[in-house]
Amino acid sequence: MTTHITVSKLSKLQRKILRLALKGGPDRQVDLFTHEALEGCFGFPPRELNKRFISTEVGPHYKSAYASVSRAFSRLAERGLVEQWCSQLRGWTGIRLTEKGRRIAEKLSPGD
Questions:
Q1: How far apart are CA 44 and CA 57, in angstroms?
Q2: Does the residue 112 lie in any domain?
Q3: What range defines the domain where residue 22 resides?
Q4: What CATH number is attached to the domain comprising 89?
Q5: How, if at all, do strands 32-33 and 92-97 pair?
Q6: Using an 8 Å Cβ cutoff, are 95 and 76 in contact?
Q7: Torsion-angle region of residue 43: left (phi > 0), alpha (psi -120 to 50) or beta?
Q8: How confident is the model at residue 52 (pLDDT cuts 50, 70, 90)?
Q9: How many domains does the chain have?
Q10: Pairwise CA distance, residues 23 & 67, whole Å
Q11: Is residue 77 domain-resident?
């Protein structure tokens, strides 16, 4: 499968997640935490790691937004573009780009 065909099958949310993950630094456990995806894709207010969003602060669409991000993470993992990571002890989830995912993310333009 070519990169172009793979990119064309990605949803707008999946593309945005890949672009956000590309900004992750090398000294982090993951390239993109779930809360960062919620902030970057849905405009939720920033929060500290290991602290939960408060539904009254982010509004009633939190559960559907969280489900959308979770589903997008899973679909990207199924395509081999990311690896999903979590810490039960610390309460975080996130993704790390694979080599293939990094190549595709680097080819995405901001308008994709």
A1: 9
A2: no
A3: 3-107
A4: 1.10.10.10
A5: antiparallel
A6: yes
A7: left
A8: low
A9: 1
A10: 23
A11: yes
